[in-house]
Amino acid sequence: MKNLKYLFLRRVTQIGLLVLYFGANAYGWNILKGTFGSSLLFGIIPLADPYTTLQVLATGFVLGTDVLLGALIITLFYFVVGGRAFCSWVCPINMVTDLANWLRRKLKLDKEEVNYRFLKRRTRYWIMVLGLIVSAITGVAAFELLSPITIMQRGIIFGFGAGISVIIAIFLFDLFGVKNGWCGHLCPLGATYSLIGKTSLIRVKHDHEACTACMECKVVCPENQVLYMINKESISVTDGECTNCGRCIDVCNDDALGFGIRSFTNSKSTKEKK
Amino acid sequence: MANSDNNRRKFMATTLQSVGLTALGGLLWSGYSDEAKASPLVLRPPGALAEKDFLDACIKCGMCAEACVNRESNVDKETGKQRPGTLQMAKGGDHRLIGTPFFTPRDVPCYMCDDIPCVPVCPSGALDMPSLLNEKKELDINKATMGLAVVHKESCIAFWGLQCDACYRACPLLDEAISLQYQKNERTGKHAFLLPVVHSDVCTGCGLCEKACVTEKPAIFVLPREHSMGKAGSHYVKGWDIKDQQRVGNRKAEEIETKTKRSEKAPVDYLNKEIEY
Fold first, then answer.
1. Does B92 lie at the interface with A, CB-CB under 8 angstroms?
2. Pairing relation of β-strands B178-185 and B148-151?
């Protein structure tokens, strides 16, 4: 029986947050109001998405201090603590792409290795920068026009309308198109959080001694380039593209992976070993 | 040497490719954004910045819509249940910039709450609270300029001579934003027309008149102010208005020379010219 601890915790967090947001509109709850673009926690603490904030600033509009403060709080949280945890613990699209990914494995669609010539994992950083440029040119937050993340979240809170088609499109793209296509290649929000969370404290740690090289972790990881050290070195996963989803820990039967606090001395000693 | 040359060529090629594809993406994306921005006639919450700035500023959080639907006054007096909110968040298929708040008066008009719950919650400044403050620095919904009601007199049954003052009665600024103009009905010879007239300096664009209108498709409806208002231009001066007359200053009529394309010709010439199609 596979361990589903972190998967379960993530789903509880994701759905719990959506319930709170939904309740704020439907029943007037005052716990978490707004959407990921900008929210209000307990009626006082502002929260705002850093990339959305940057887009609005790029249009040339001087934002209210609530949004700027909110973006700062979120940035600091992921910078210091969470890493890219937004993507796997908060974002609702993660549930869609995880489902697509799971189906891909079940349908054995991954057996054929395809080389996506134009679609590299670094594409998202280009899109991230491009989004800001387009925002500046057209005078409207450009990614927010397309963002399946907020479309899905607003859909759940206020009703989907035709917006549901965007969610289905992402699902189909990830299932039949590119593996981890959206979250792993295109999403500029993920790119932003990758950059923000590069040096965060919570990290997955690998124990090379315990590893039996079954490679289950690499199969299940949505960003498996970050797991280059598996069965090679006993170090932390320090790549910012790791979403701290903990699926690798769940599937590991050898206790070779686990969450830990980044130790700055460790990374030095491995460098010395080299 | 050959290898490093190869690498260099490959690096150049991929860089060029990345830049080229980014430019392609940028063109498509800009084109789409620009089209998506060109919303049709859309009514925004009170205090909203001018549409262009509003689209810059709105962070699409939905807190205005949440405050609107959850206000204490939003309860059906008969059933005691919550009614739908005025402000809706544009979703796919609404053909308005996705995620931005708007309202459709014929469905749910703005009830012009005294405390304006939708505005102070705006975190980004897209809904500008200072624009709704009166001289006493209090929130004053009467200062809102969400739109301006327009009467289509051919479909308005009051202009037919039927007695209807539904919009006039529904207006929260009764006799100020809409007044009734009395006029003799020549057809019957003994009745009066009671004609609704909207005053743009008072009308907030709440849309209660549009909601109340009895015709199949409302004969009075709210449009964004930039679409429902004309502009006389600064070259027209109200000579009978002391304040307006001051714009002229001490200039004498014979000293003022207005040059237009037309004025280069003598009036006799351009007035007698055939109409250009």
1. yes
2. unpaired
Rounded Cα–Cα distance for residues A67 and B152 (Å): 43
C-alpha span between A77 and A54 (Å, rounded): 17
CB distance from B51 to chain A under 8 Å? no
Task: Please state the domain extents for chain A.
Answer: 5-195, 202-273
Q: What's the burial of A68, exposed, middle or buried (CB within 10 Å: 0-12/13-18/19+)?
A: middle
Q: What is the CATH number of domain A202-273?
A: 3.30.70
Site from B35, B39, B66, B96 to mutate, A interface, most A CB atoms within 10 angstroms: B66
Whether B29 contacts chain A with CB within 8 A: yes
How near does any CA of chain A get to the CA of B8, in Å? 19
Torsion (CA) A78, A82, A86, A87 in degrees, nearest 10: 120
- Tokens standing for residue B35: 């089209």
pLDDT digits (tens, 9 = 90+) for A94-110: 999 999 989 988 887 77
**What is the per-residue DSSP string for B245-276?**
HGGGTT--GGG-----TTTTS-HHHHHSSPPP
Give bridge partners of residue B92 from the DSSP assignment.
A161
Nearest-by-Cβ selection for A161 from B29, B94, B121: B94
Task: Indicate whether this complex's ipTM tops 0.85.
Answer: no
Q: Give the three-class secondary structure for B23.
A: helix
Give B203 to chain A, closest Cα distance, Å: 29
| DSSP of B206-236 | --HHHHH--SSS-SEEEE-HHHH-----TT-
Task: Name beta bridge partners: A32.
Answer: A41
DSSP conformation class of A88 = I
Question: Rounded to an integer, what distance in angstroms lies between the CA atom of residue A75 and that of residue B222?
Answer: 42
Structural domain boundaries in chain B: 39-141, 242-271
B165 Cβ neighbours under 8 A, 6+ residues apart:
B158, B180, B194, B196
Residue by residue, pLDDT tens for chain B (277 residues) are: 566 778 888 888 878 878 888 888 888 888 888 887 777 789 999 999 998 889 889 999 999 999 999 888 888 888 888 888 999 998 888 888 888 999 999 999 999 999 999 999 999 989 999 999 988 888 999 999 999 999 999 999 999 999 999 999 999 999 999 999 999 999 999 999 999 999 999 999 999 999 999 999 999 999 999 899 999 888 888 889 989 888 887 777 777 677 777 777 777 877 777 776 6
Cα angle B231, B234, B236; round to 5: 90
